[in-house]
Amino acid sequence: MKLGVNIDHIATLRQARRGRIPDPVEAASACERAGADSIVCHLREDRRHIQDADVRALKASVRRLNLEMSIAPEIVRAALAIKPAQVTLVPERRQELTTEGGLDAIRLSKRLTPLVRKFHAQGIEVSLFIDPATRQVKAARDTGARIIELHTGTYANASSRQQPKAREALSRAAAQGEALGLSVAAGHGLDYGNIGAILAIPQIDEVNIGFSIIARSVTVGLEQAVREMIEQLYQRNKAHALQAA
After folding, report:
1. 148 vs 220: CA distance, rounded Å
2. Pairing of strands 147-151, 183-187
3. What DSSP designation does 106 have?
4. From CA 193, how far away is CA 131, in angstroms rounded?
5. Which SS3 state, helix, strand or coil, does residue 33 take?
6. Other CB atoms within 10 A of residue 192 CB
7. What pLDDT score does 243 carry?
8. Whole-model pTM?
9. pLDDT 10s digits, 91-106
10. Phi, psi at 178, each rounded to 5°
């Protein structure tokens, strides 16, 4: 299983003083040294944390950049100019603290399909960030996207009593996505305590995690925080290898 580390909140801290530190590029480098497979950032329309210059600098310095973004024309133009390895299309509301749910691939299919085609024509992979619902998985595939990222927020925020039901929804959606030929990622609200049940879903081959790693890094340092998360992923990969042997 691969790990993408979202570094938005490095920029959140910098923007609190409108200064130059901490530097998202420096943070991304620490994440890569620790073993992160990709760097994730979200260029929001209100530029509350990551700025256009950050995305350009990250594109020039990291091995693989996954740009989270809305489908607003201004953001689409910026992404096509910068050409990250991947874009992840997400819903966005100005009032929200963080992304609150999945993209409605059914309702937005007529806008998403030509957009996916446009990104693919530029060699940019496209992932749709969707809720773990059967109709959404199929609609995502029908846009031409080759990757889905399942929104794990409901699972992460559920009570211990409700968490198994939310986890089962993720498992069903991941199995459906794989059956439809999609690569399946997962993310939102995952942390060191709740990721175990997600690692047990075999069809999920990537997790994208930000806040919990950045929060952990305040006390142990960023490289160590990333290594601790990768160790959990490594144990899952090791178990799968033993089962296949």
Report:
1. 32
2. parallel
3. T
4. 22
5. helix
6. 16
7. 79
8. 0.92
9. 976 555 555 689 999 9
10. -65, -40
Q: By the 8 A CB rule, do 70 and 50 touch? A: no
CA distance 196 to 156: 11
Looking at this protein, which amino acid is placed at residue 218? V
Q: Is 222 helix (H, G, I), strand (E, B) or coil?
A: helix
Locate tokens 């957009």: which residue? Answer: 115
CB 157 within 8 A of CB 177: no
Name the token pair of 49: 């944390």
Which domain CATH number covers 28? 3.20.20.70
Structure tokens at 192: 């060191």
- Say if residue 190's pLDDT is above 80: yes
127: closest CA among 220, 189, 64?
Answer: 64
Structure tokens at 111: 């806008």
Which distant-in-sequence residues (6+ apart) come within 8 Å of 166 by Cβ?
Answer: 154, 155, 158
Domains in the chain, number: 1
With H, G, I as helix, E, B as strand and everything else as coil, classify residue 203.
coil
Token readout for 228 is: 């601790």
User: φ, ψ for residue 68 (rounded to 5)?
Assistant: -80, 140
Cα 207 to Cα 190: distance, rounded to the nearest angstrom: 9
Amino acid making up residue 157: N
Q: At what angle do helices 134-142 and 163-179 cross, to 10 degrees?
A: 30
By annotation, the residues acting in catalysis are: 42, 68, 188
State the CB neighbour count (10 A cutoff) for residue 180.
14
- Give the range of the structural domain holding residue 149, as residue numbers without chain letter: 2-244
**For residues 125 and 163, is the Cβ–Cβ distance under 8 A?**
no
- Cβ distance 170 to 155 under 8 Å? yes
